[in-house]
# Entry
Amino acid sequence: MINYSEAFEIIKKEIQKFPLQTEEVDILESYNRILAEDVIADVDLPPFDNSAVDGYAIKYSERTEWKIIGEISAGNYSAFNLTENDAVLVTTGSKLPTNADTVIPIEDVDVNGNVLLLKQNSILKKGMNIRSQGNDLRKNEIAVHRFTKIDAKTIAVLASCGKEKVIVFSKLKVAILATGDELIQINEKPGGDKLRVSNIYSLYAALKEMNHTVINLGFTKDDKEIITQKVKAALEMDIDLLITTGGVSVGKYDFLKEVFKGQGVKEKFWKVNIKPGKPIYFGIYEKEKRKVLVFGLPGNPVSSLVNFYVFIKPAIEFLFKQDEMKNITATLQNDLKKKDGKRHFARGILFEENGEWKVTSEFSQSSGNLVEMSRANCLIEIEEERFNPKKGERVKCILI
# Structure
């Protein structure tokens, strides 16, 4: 059985072979997509010297009184040839007269007719309150780099560069299939030994949160023939990843590993020395230049979601050159039990107090407790060689 680091390196090695596809989308549809091109500035940003404040543009000299000779508002430029005696009223963002080199804020002056007076104790420095042409970016420089995840701030820059259409990486297509005789629809009331199926919903949401395309294949009973048909059909679909839950352990009805082999999936590993989520399966299906990464996750709802957060999500982020995991080191607020040589991923609540990150983990850590999982905002990673961390020790937390 391999350890966590070995397993993750195997996944990374395989996923980086994926040929990333690109597509062109409208800028308003590009939010949360990954940029597939370096966007080059087609003009200087800003494109002209402009005022950073509402005030008066002047040609600097050591004086405190000027004659107001006109005004310029944003988008309504008028040419003025300033002398040291002149001032022009300007609004924020307005283009400055050619020889203006300083802007006095409107709150630092008094106006008497067409006479401008600097208030006592106001500061006047040459070059103040001017945003110079090209100060943010020069024409033909890279404005936004490839592999940038596009957010509201990025879209503003893209728009400033005239990018009505944006080339982004295509979303991954991921199919999800749950297995288990105990599963019923969520609109049914469980009785006896039945459970509402939750895995496909949690994994669906987790993938949607990453902005990828998800195909919900539903769930099926622990019937080898039915599972075989479902897996075969899934592998023939236009997908990049197939994620199953249940059926990958060593029980009598755990058929997935055998089914994968029968359908030509090449096993890369099975079982990892972690808790929860030990019986994870990973394999590769290749046919006619198509490649599908196959993940068989445990049926336990907490284990499957933990597997997603520590294996699948960071692998996808690695493919698109994003942060693989967002980690924060925090001070443990309670003792944790860990007596084995596995790598543990304990649920925790991370918070900041007096400028210091702290984490509490007073959960049962039962791999079946979905409610506790829903309340956690991090996974506390405890390495194989570390045992029984105590209150006050520093631990690594993976944000979820």
Notes: The chain is about 20% helix and 30% strand.
